[in-house]
Specification:
Shape: elongated
Order of helices and strands: HHHHHHEEEEEEEHEEHE
Strand order of the largest sheet: 3-4-5-9-8-7-6
Structural class: alpha+beta
CATH architecture of the largest domain: 3-Layer(aba) Sandwich
Number of domains: 2
Strand content: 15-25%
Distance between the termini: 82 Å
Radius of gyration: 29 Å
CATH topology of the largest domain: Protein Transport Mog1p, Chain A
Number of helices: 8
């Protein structure tokens, strides 16, 4: 038999009882399910933004992904602290749901942090993504999915030296080449590129410089080919600092005329065929005072490592920013 509905008078008496004596047996315990749903809703939008950045991410340009991943990791960290506070007030029967969401947020945060790394590690992203997926499946509170498979595949393809097709790239050798052996002393000329000036090799079998945009509007490349397999390339990234990705034989902090300092990486391998066969020299040049976070990279190599090292040093020391990105 259904219990009779309480009258309005009875309800009013109950309210007066609560107001006068501090309650009539009601509960002030929080609604854990509602609280957990609220926490999940607070991170849904950041995760969705990260998902969109993942969809458009390419190994050649990751500035949007890294920035979005950093913001998402911060939001997840805040949400995880909120869930941990809820666990203290939850009943024993409710703590399982709380811990499920806390674990999922922790794994999502680890994935976001791995996507903010520089350089990105395909294996770390893949493991973090799988853990986040499993944690989300185990949690009774729903979270948006993150699909990292296409980015992981592209990163591994790049690591094997099979670079995805992009506009531009290193130019093919142009012009006459000097015979193998000891080339003549390298001559230099002043060159003006996109928002910079630098001294580049000229004469003696060196071709005219070529310009390209491997990532249109985000990565500008000047490439010069010379005798004996020598080359030098200057990369300019107006919207993110230059970084070195991969393994190196040595790393040295060195001077730089316009910026004060640079970092020299000596390495063999990577995506450039010349650097797979011979030692290459890569100068990373960034300025901490540039709010836009722009940067330069000067890499040189070839069959004559001593000459390549000297060319890389001369060009790197001469790079001077000009124009709107200065």
């Amino acid at each position: 038999m259904r219990a009779p509905k309480p009258s309005a008078r009875a309800v009013a008496i109950g309210v007066c009882c609560a107001a006068l004596v501090g309650g009539c047996g009601g509960s002030d315990e929080p609604d854990i399910d509602a609280e957990l749903d609220e926490v999940a809703a607070s991170v849904a939008r950041p995760i969705e933004r990260l998902s969109a950045a993942l969809d458009g991410a390419k190994p050649s340009s990751l500035v949007v992904l890294r920035a979005t991943a950093e913001r998402t990791a911060d939001a997840l960290a805040d949400a995880r602290r909120d869930v941990r506070d809820l666990e203290d007030s939850a009943a024993d029967s409710e703590r399982g749901r709380v811990r499920e969401l806390e674990t999922a947020l922790d794994d999502y945060e680890a994935l976001a942090e791995s996507l903010a790394e520089s350089p990105l590690a395909a294996a770390e992203i893949e493991v973090s993504a799988e853990r986040a997926h499993q944690a989300a499946q185990d949690s009774r509170v729903e979270l948006p999915e993150l699909e990292s498979g296409p980015l992981v595949a592209a990163l591994r393809k790049t690591r094997r030296g099979q670079v995805p097709e992009v506009a531009g790239g290193l130019s093919a050798p142009v012009g006459p080449a000097a015979p193998a052996g000891n080339p003549a002393a390298t001559s230099y000329t002043t060159y003006t590129g996109p928002s910079f000036q630098a001294r580049i090799p000229t004469g003696g079998g060196w071709a005219a410089p070529s310009q390209s945009e491997p990532t249109p509007g985000e990565l500008f490349r000047t490439n010069v080919r010379g005798p004996n397999g020598l080359f030098v390339a200057i990369d300019f990234t107006p919207f993110e600092p230059a970084t070195f990705g991969g393994r190196y034989q040595s790393r040295t902090e060195v001077g730089q005329t316009a910026f004060g300092s640079a970092t020299l990486y000596v390495f063999q391998g990577g995506v450039l065929p010349e650097c797979q066969r011979n030692t290459c020299f890569d100068y990373i040049i960034n300025s901490g005072s540039q709010s836009g976070g722009s940067g330069f990279a000067v890499v040189a190599g070839g069959n004559d490592s001593a000459t390549a090292a000297a060319i890389a040093q001369t060009v790197a020391e001469s790079v001077t920013p000009i124009g709107q990105y200065r």
